[in-house]
Amino acid sequence: MPWTTALIPPQAGRRAIVTGATSGIGYEAALALAGAGAEIVIAARDLGKAEAAAAAIRRTHPAALVETRPLDTARLASVRAFASAWRAEGRPIDILLLNAGIAAVPRREETEDGFERQLATNYLGHFALTGLLWPSLRQGDGTRIVAVASIAHRSGTIAFDDLQLRRAYGPQSAYRQTKLAMLIFALALDRRLRAAGSPIRSVAAHPGVAATAIARRGDRAGPLAERIGAGLLGLIGQSAARGALPLLYAATAPEAEGGRYYGPDGVWEIRGHPAPAKVEPHAADPEAAARLWALSEALTDVTYPL
């Protein structure tokens, strides 16, 4: 039987933080989790959009528990502020869904921390956020950290000698690097969890090709490129709601395993229902993972207590 949102186990009493849940697959994942009874925290850069998303969820599920918080994963100061405030409240986290992202920014941009913007938004901010929220993760086998990767990881490389792509920037190669980094991170984190005897599961997922606002290319390509990108995604891909299914499977299905990667089961994993996805060998390389982890710790000044 194909896995759908109807198979999400009851989530009452569980709390999920979803980054970038103002639209697209993040919003659809938050909507489905709220419908299953989870308490939802929409963590997003634009609080106005976050409030609009929360209101839309409440219109669909009037009893939903939804709150919004400011979080810009491209800024370490924002990540630290979010995590510090959360830890101070002492509220446990059951699902940490690392979804926020931008794609194919046409020209290289640098954040206030000196990071290439796609790398900061898609990967480094999430690496730091997870480590800083570590004390708040509930220590149980139902706790999931879900990293959103992409089929783009297949042709991605980690430019270890030029991680910020100062010498050679390409919009697509920069995006592929970030999604490869997210997959390497998710798999490496689960290995560390297993070695530490932790019951928490780190799982990776990808949406296939989904018609979402990521076609805006980081809001920097202009209206024509946005329309062309959205049109192409709509033609070959699937809806955002369908694209969110692998994320929801990774976050809630009892049979979803730590250290695994899930995506659509159709041709080339472009569309379909959740199933185990293909991990390219370079994404499972433990030496590359150790090197990326060390770099990530150095850049963010965040270490994990594992």
Walkthrough of the structure:
The protein is α/β, with parallel strands linked by helices and 306 residues long. Helix content is 40%, strand content 12%. It is built from nine helices and eight strands. The N and C termini lie far apart (38 Å).
Condensed summary:
With 306 residues, the chain is α/β, with parallel strands linked by helices. The protein has nine helices and eight strands.
The whole-angstrom Rg is: 18 Å
Give the termini separation: 38 Å
Helix tally?
9
Main beta-sheet annotation: 8 strands, mixed
Strand order, main sheet: write it out.
Answer: 3-2-1-4-5-6-7-8
Strand content: 5-15%
Strand elements, count: 8
Percentage of residues in helical conformation:
25-40%
Q: Which quaternary structure do these chains form?
A: single chain
Shape: globular
In N-to-C order, the SSE pattern is: EHEHEHEHEHEHHHEEH
Mean pLDDT metric: 93
- Coarse structural class: alpha/beta
Uncertain ranges: 215-219, 224-230
Short key terms for the protein model shown above:
single chain, alpha/beta, 8-stranded mixed β-sheet, 8 strands, 12% strand
Architecture blueprint of SSEs:
Layout: E1 15-19, H1 24-35, E2 39-44, H2 47-60, E3 66-70, H3 76-89, E4 95-98, H4 117-132, E5 144-148, H5 171-195, E6 201-205, H6 223-236, H7 240-243, H8 245-252, E7 261-264, E8 274-276, H9 286-300
Parallel strand pairs: 1-2, 1-4, 2-3, 4-5, 5-6, 6-7
Antiparallel strand pairs: 7-8
Helix pairs in contact: 3-4, 4-5, 4-9, 5-9
